[in-house]
Design brief:
globular; Rossmann fold; binds adenosine monophosphate; alpha+beta; D-amino Acid Aminotransferase, Chain A, domain 1; Dna Ligase, domain 1; 3 domains; four-stranded parallel beta sheet
């Protein structure tokens, strides 16, 4: 259903490739605005499927299924970026794909992504391409130790990554990444990690959610805080980097730029995610327009919404580990009146699996962190003041 100026108006159908929590929150935002949502993934009864109008179960490389899916929608987007180019091309035969498959192609391979970033003059962690054991030895000599070896394709949340402390560890590290095409990066002794979630509309308009601070545990995002405590110069630079990247890639949609802030206040781009991002989950409760609604507005050709942060906020991920001793104590966490609970509807709680998150709003970012961590502790009987009950 097309309206004026190619706008895909409310009432139209949006197709999502992928069916996890990002698609779920996107679908909630889309349905709130009167859109219908179809989702395609190899799974059934998924986080996205549970709130979508239609859940199609098919492999991403079943191109006939992808074509049929695309025929039934007005625009296709994705929440899972490791979809092969062939699938986005098949979808594009029948409906616009936003962001375009070319954006996925660049960002789903670390070497292509770093090549784009370095080639366009964006600051990146020193790196070298590694395709053999000899390459790895030479790259380590050039970059020094410690360094991090990452597979070029299909990595997320620290999967497919090995830290290398010395030359002796080279053979084991090469084996650990399965001898696959990889990238070696200098290890950055950063001051903190930050991200900018930003959107670019069909008309080239740009909007961003400011700088968000991210704290990781075991390579997985643990807590995000907005606004990040960075200088106004760093904030300006971070936003300009994000703007340049979205423009350079001609993104239509949301893209997250993850960055390291070094101890001497320099920003280095670590990674791009061409979709809403875990660090932007707090925008759901804390901003006038969430990252999910912004994605919808961008891909349907609507004007981008206000990204104003209503109050300082913090988000804490709920990983499957919290289920180790049975179901978490949901009523206890709901006793925190300024904390919002999000659960993704996943049946099996495995360690490290993202099952949900909490968002706290407060007067200051520090207070928001204290509340959200307190509310998460309450789930497993940890009283932040008196210790374990
Ligand atoms: P990635 O999958 O590249 O986002 O890496 C996951 C996490 O590992 C990052 O958020 C950092 O906490 C850490 N990490 C990755 N690369 C580096 C690096 N070159 N130096 C220091 N820490 C890193």
């Amino acid at each position: 259903m097309r309206g004026l100026n190619g706008v895909i108006a409310p009432g139209s159908v949006v197709g999502v490739l992928g069916s996890g929590q990002l698609g779920r929150m996107f679908a909630i935002a889309a349905r709130r605005m009167g859109y219908r949502v179809h989702t395609l993934s190899p799974d059934y009864d998924t986080p996205t499927g549970q709130v979508a109008d239609l859940e199609v179960q098919a492999a991403y490389d079943d191109l006939d299924a992808v074509r049929q899916f695309a025929r039934g929608v007005d625009v296709v987007t994705f929440e899972f970026e490791n979809v092969a180019a062939a699938a986005t091309e098949a979808a594009a035969e029948h409906a616009p794909v936003r962001p375009a498959g070319a954006v996925l192609h660049t960002t789903q391979n670390r070497l292509r992504e770093k090549g784009f970033l370095a080639g366009a003059g964006f600051p990146v962690t020193p790196f070298a391409a590694v395709r053999s054991l000899e390459d790895l030895t030479a790259a380590l000599a050039a970059l020094g130790t410690p360094a991090v070896l990452k597979t070029a394709g299909w990595g997320y949340d620290g999967k497919g990554q090995v830290k290398i402390a010395s030359l002796e560890e080279v053979p084991a590290a090469w084996e650990a990444v399965g001898g696959q095409e990889s990238v070696l990066e200098a290890f950055v002794d950063f001051e903190r990690e930050v991200s900018v979630v930003a959107a670019r509309g069909l008309d080239g308009s740009f909007a961003h959610f400011g700088v968000i601070e991210n704290r990781h545990r075991r390579h997985i995002l643990d807590v995000s805080i907005a606004p990040a405590a960075v200088s106004s110069r760093v904030e300006r630079e971070a936003v300009e980097i994000a703007r340049g990247i979205l423009e350079g890639l001609s993104v239509v949609g949301v893209l997250c730029v993850e960055m390291f802030l070094t101890r001497d206040d320099r920003l280095l781009v670590n990674e791009l995610a061409p979709r809403p991002h875990n660090s932007g989950h707090l925008t759901f409760d804390a901003c006038v327009t969430s990252q999910f609604e912004q994605q919808l507005r961008a891909i349907t050709g609507l004007a981008l919404g206000s990204t104003e942060l209503l109050r300082p906020a913090a988000m804490a991920n709920l990983l499957g580990d919290l289920w180790a001793n049975g179901d978490p104590d949901w009523p206890a966490t709901c006793r925190y009146p300024d904390v919002k609970l999000h659960l993704y509807g996943k049946a099996a709680a495995r360690p490290g699996r993202k099952m949900g998150h909490l968002t706290a709003l407060a007067r200051t970012p520090a207070e928001a962190v204290e509340r959200v961590v307190g509310a998460r502790g309450a789930l497993v009987g940890v009283d932040p003041i008196n210790g374990r009950r």
